[in-house]
Structure formats: structure tokens, C-alpha cells
TrEMBL record:
GO terms of biological process kind: D-alanine transmembrane transport; L-alanine transport; L-isoleucine import across plasma membrane; L-valine import across plasma membrane
Pfam families, sorted: ABC_tran, BCA_ABC_TP_C
Species the sequence originates in: Microvirga vignae
Keywords: ATP-binding, Nucleotide-binding, Transport
GO terms for MF: ATP binding; ATP hydrolysis activity; L-isoleucine transmembrane transporter activity; L-phenylalanine transmembrane transporter activity; L-valine transmembrane transporter activity
Ranges for domain ABC transporter: 4-245
CDD domains associated with the record: ABC_Mj1267_LivG_branched
UniProt-recorded name of the protein: ABC transporter
Entry GO terms, CC: plasma membrane
Length: 245
């Protein structure tokens, strides 16, 4: 069963068609990038998959289940995860506490204050931090971390929801070049190991061509091409817009 199936999604804002009949599929463990100029509709498509926006028409299926009209909370429980920006993490709290809070909110149990449950959440948080290479910073406040490390913690927080599908809208924005590749290497490794499908947008074409298995090119709300990084690189419009040819 296909993990994510997006079928003919369209959305207009006033007279502006931000997405027009956008269709694509994403499999477990796959890294799929959506690229396109500013205003192409990338975030609009993301928000329709995440549930923040309701499409004018079209459908979103997760594991064959129609979730087009489901709330973001419902989708989250069904396995649609999302990385959020720094502001969303609680900077004064420790790294481990941030991840624990995500675990508690995902489990939605009133056992969170029960000591054995707290211990289990703490251990689970440490295991997730280990996976993103941040176990040694578990007790540090998030505010003391370098920007690239905050991004790793954000990834751990997203993983706390045990997503089947992970949405990452410009995950490497504001990061240095070397850190970008490292974050996406890590994401690819975890996606592969856990069978998580990753949908991401990205401005840095080195990241896109180095980490996506498949690339969708969106221009004025429409998909103009889908293919492997090698295939997408050959497209004239992509070369002109992104590769300085
Ligand atoms: P991208 O993420 O590719 O830069 P967006 O999805 O943010 O593109 O935007 C696509 C188009 O839709 C743009 O023309 C943008 O101005 C418009 N748009 C996006 N969100 C809204 C909104 N909430 N209200 C009005 N217009 C919007
Ligand atoms: Mg955007």
C-alpha cells in the first residue's frame, strides 16, 4: 500500500491558484523533495497534506485512508509528523524535557505524572536523542545549543510522534552548508531505518540533489516535472532557475 497518495489537489487564494491539480505518491522510506521558485505553492501543498489548509478539491490518502478533511491533530495521531521551527521548542527547557513533552502529548495519557511513566518517557527521550546524536546534550537547555543542534532536537521531537510520514518545510533554512548535509544525511538514515516517508522542500540544490530520491518541480502551482535528481537536473527550466546555467 502506498504511504501517501496526493490526488488532484487544488487551492486558490482569491484569484491566485496556489496549487493546481497536484498529484503524486510517496512510499515508505522514500525522500521526496518539492522544489520551485518562491510562491510556486510548495507550502500550500505541504499545508494541505498536513491539514492546516483545506483543498478546494482533490484528496489526500494515507495508507489508503482518506484524510483530506481530517484535522492536523487527527493526522498527527494517524502518523503525519512535521518538524517545526525553533520558536516551537521551549528554549528554557532541557533538550530531554522537550522530547519528553512531545512523547507525553503523543501518548495523550493521564499517566504522565506517574513516576514509572515519567521514567519511561525519560528513557524513550534519551533513546531518540541518541538516534539524532544529541544524547550528550540531554540535560542542557535548548537555548544553549548551536542552531544545527536545535534542528536535530526538532527532528527528535518530530520522531517522538512515531510518524509514518514526515513533512519538512525548508528544514535547513538558516543553517551552514556543512550542517545542512549532515542534518539531511541523518534524516535519510532514520527514514530508511524506520521506513518513514519524508516530504521536504529545500532551496539548497546541493541538498536536494544529494538527498532526494525523487524530485517534484512545482511552478505556479502546477507540477511541471517529476523524476530522479539526475533526470530533474537535465530540465532546461531547472537549470536556468537553480543551477546558474
Ligand atoms: P512557496 O511555499 O512555494 O513559496 P506558497 O505556497 O507559500 O509558495 O504560496 C503560493 C501562492 O499562494 C503565492 O502566490 C502566495 O502569495 C499565495 N498564498 C499562499 N498562502 C496564502 C494565504 N494564506 N492567503 C493568500 N495567498 C496565499
Ligand atoms: Mg514556502
Amino acid at each position: 500500500m502506498t504511504l501517501l497518495s496526493v490526488q488532484d489537489l487544488s487551492k486558490s487564494f482569491g484569484g491566485v491558484a496556489a496549487a493546481r491539480d497536484v498529484s503524486f505518491m510517496l512510499e515508505r522510506g522514500e525522500m521526496l523533495a518539492i522544489i520551485g521558485p518562491n510562491g510556486a505553492g510548495k507550502s500550500t501543498v505541504f499545508n494541505m497534506v498536513g491539514g492546516q489548509l483545506r483543498p478546494d478539491h482533490g484528496a489526500v490518502l494515507l495508507d489508503g485512508q482518506n484524510i483530506t478533511l481530517a484535522s492536523p491533530q487527527k493526522r498527527f495521531r494517524l502518523g503525519v509528523g512535521r518538524t517545526f521551527q525553533v520558536a516551537q521548542t521551549f528554549l528554557s527547557m532541557s533538550v530531554a524535557e522537550n522530547v519528553q513533552m512531545a512523547l507525553v502529548s503523543h501518548n495523550r495519557k493521564s499517566t504522565a505524572l506517574w513516576a514509572p511513566a515519567r521514567m519511561r518517557y525519560h528513557e524513550e527521550a534519551l533513546a531518540l536523542l541518541e538516534q539524532v546524536g544529541m544524547a550528550e546534550s540531554a540535560d542542557h537547555p535548548c537555548s544553549a545549543l548551536a542552531y544545527g543542534d536545535v534542528k536535530r532536537v526538532e527532528l527528535a521531537i518530530a520522531l517522538a510522534g512515531r510518524p509514518k510520514l514526515l513533512l519538512m518545510d525548508e528544514p535547513t533554512a538558516g543553517m551552514a552548508t556543512r550542517e545542512r548535509a549532515a542534518l539531511m544525511d541523518l534524516t535519510a538514515e532514520i527514514a530508511d531505518a524506520k521506513g518513514i516517508g519524508v516530504l521536504f522542500t529545500e532551496h539548497d540544490m546541493d541538498v536536494v540533489f544529494g538527498h532526494a530520491e525523487r524530485v517534484i518541480v512545482l511552478v505556479r502551482g502546477r507540477i511541471i516535472a517529476t523524476g530522479s535528481p539526475e533526470e530533474i537536473r537535465q530540465i532546461e527550466e531547472v537549470r536556468r532557475a537553480y543551477l546558474g546555467d
